[in-house]
Prior knowledge:
The complex is a heterodimer. By secondary structure, chain A is mainly alpha-helical.
Amino acid sequence: MTVVTRQIRENRLGKLVLAPGGITQAAATTAAEANLETIHDECIAEVDRDFDLLKRSAMDPQVGDNVMSQRAIYAHANTIAGIAGCCGLGEMGEAAFSLCELVDRQILSGAWNPLAVAVHVDAMNLLRTGDNELTPEGRRAMLAGLRNVALHAPPAPGARPPTPGEN
Amino acid sequence: MASSTAKLDLKKASILLLEPNVPNMAVITQVLLGFGAKTFHRCDTGEQAKVLVQGTAIDLMIIEGQTAEGEPDGFDFVHWLRRSELEPAAYTPVIITCAHTSLANVTRARDCGAHFIVAKPLAPTVLFERILWVARVNRPFVNAGAYVGPDRRFKNLGPPTGTDGRRATDLKGDVGLAQEPNMSQTEIDDLMQPAKVAL
């Protein structure tokens, strides 16, 4: 029989960070956002680099049978989803998140749908280049459409069914 | 949610960052520098982090969950850490970061023994609040064999619907619909943990 133990441990972090002094949340977040501005270009460059690599993997004619290429698409989309919002490309990050969800489901289910991937790549292209006439409403509708595509991908065996409105 | 006047002092805190992606490492570092942190231990892999925690005192760990494909990742590192019996490293507060917060990844973060999962892109406000929460609320550590880590139970929701519960203290019968709005987390915290505030 498993013995469950439950103990309170010393919280060194609590003692350190809650000592008198320190920085207020408002000042800390303002300083953090100012610091992020200093690496804005570096983040944009990383998004572009990953997007180029993602497109290359997506164009692999054998991608449907090549799990390595599929995982590469996931990895690059994951990086973009994590960083795009830090450099003013939040909508592209949302599209990348949707692509992560789509590719994750497709890898786990083994059912690759190249059109569903292509529509994500095209949308990310549109959102990145910005030289289009998409209105804010149009962008929101496009992102909602991408989420819908991802949620309709075959779920992994044993996964719970998607909930309406789930992201 | 913390108020905007809540304060943190990270100047003396030793922080382990596990993040394989260079720009992502720059993002987390810049955010923490903005919070006043000075001491960082940066690692690219879980293996590096394992070596580090065995010889360095760490006060807070911020760990990317999906560090690498096909090898132990950030979730695995935290899972190992909690069972490592390293004193006091095994009990260090851990915040997992993750871009693709799928149900599977959130479940892994919960089950590996992390205190919190924070979605990327990192929002400074959210990270500040999570660090503050980890610092203020000393959650008990549970070792239940299959799970080792901070107590995951945030809310007492009572026994599952349709059952009478297993404890003598479990209330029986239908409770009925709520008559007023639920209390906010701040209101609950104020009741449970009276704290001195600066007015």
